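We emphasize that the prediction below concerns an isolated chain of 267 residues; any contacts that depend on oligomerization or on bound cofactors are therefore not represented. The input was used exactly as deposited, without trimming of termini.
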Amino acid sequence: MVKVISSVQNPLIKNVLLLSDKPRARKEQNRIVIEGLREITLATMSGFPITDLFYCPAIINDPDLQSLFLHLEKNIEMVEVSTNVFNRLAYRKDSGGVLALAEPRRLALSDLKLTKQPLLLVLETVEKPGNLGALLRTADAASLDAVIICDPQTDIYNPNAIRSGIGCIFTMPVVTTTSEEAMKWMRSAGIKMFGTALTASRCYHETDFKKPSAIIMGSEANGLSNGWLEGADDLIKIPMRGKIDSMNVSVSAAIVIFEAMRQRNFQ
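Result of the prediction step, given as a token string:
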């Protein structure tokens, strides 16, 4: 049975807004908010259990809605909302009239299934959800083995990270852990750790990424911590010729990752 809601004061609507805004609420309820037809479809195809679906018939066309229904379990909560209510729920204008609640997936390092020559992206203390989303898009485009987020300063299921990553949080194996645990695990797995730092003497394009490798990126504000600068197997840099000494972290990661992919013949 489909519920019909036309008031933004409805408790279900208030709870969605709470989940969108508060990481603590997402953790306590074990629910995340997914906005957009493409993102919800990617989540369902990757096995994320959808528990509630909110849709606005005045915005989403029936063929798209019917196509989405094919990927959903039959026992989920279906909620039809008015245009006014959906506009209150939606963060962006092009979300297509559909929003879902789902159970998150929390992977551990031991859950990762690596290829013979794995290539990983490791992020230290990532702070901005928008940057995280952009980094996940790059990781998906390169089909990396996994993204490891060490000591995160933002919830990986922040709705803005999901939106900016166009749902790549659902297509990539993503693990959150401590820097110490990540280093220990990569050493035991025989993965060479390449830390990115302006103080490095070797440039990224002079580095051999053909063997099992991890590219370690620090925060835009502070770069890598001393723990990673000392713990990495090698330090590399992107040569800078302008008047500034840094780029957006997602741009920097893309440059190094696709050099590694070039060396591997994009395989």
